[in-house]
Design goal:
Layout: E1 2-6, E2 9-11, E3 17-24, E4 33-38, E5 45-50, E6 58-59, E7 67-72, E8 77-82, E9 91-97, E10 104-105, E11 109-113
Parallel strand pairs: 2-11
Antiparallel strand pairs: 1-3, 3-8, 4-5, 4-9, 5-6, 7-8, 9-10, 9-11
Length: 115
């Protein structure tokens, strides 16, 4: 199982970024996928999750209306579109297989929101 994130970087407050997570080694369409983040000195938190097929996405209250999770089952890839970014969104963002009980994680990608 491999999950490889990309798309992080430095962005000004109010800006946007799109994170990607390319996966391999398992049947992507069988799994709920999620994005977590961990800021310095804080616990890892679930940001967004998307079901394997039908059903609503799930978002942390802090990102509702600003972040959108999506998936491309043909490419075995999950995305996180982040808009109206705030300094408090600064963190390492991780892609994970599963939802609240994820079992595999990527290596993470740094997102820094600063002027």
């Amino acid at each position: 199982v491999q999950l490889v994130e990309s798309g992080g970087g430095l962005v000004q407050p109010g800006g946007s970024l799109r994170l990607s997570c390319a996966t391999s080694g398992f049947t992507f369409t069988n799994y709920r996928m999620s994005w977590y983040r961990q800021a310095p000195g804080k616990e890892r938190e679930l940001v967004a999750a998307i079901p394997s097929d039908y059903g609503p996405e799930d978002y942390a209250d802090s990102v509702k209306g600003r972040f959108t999770i999506s998936r491309d089952n043909a490419k075995n890839t999950v995305y996180l579109q982040m808009s109206s970014l705030k300094p408090e969104d600064t963190a390492v963002y991780y892609c994970a297989r599963g939802g609240r009980r994820a079992d595999y994680w990527g290596q993470g990608t740094q997102v820094t929101v600063s002027s």
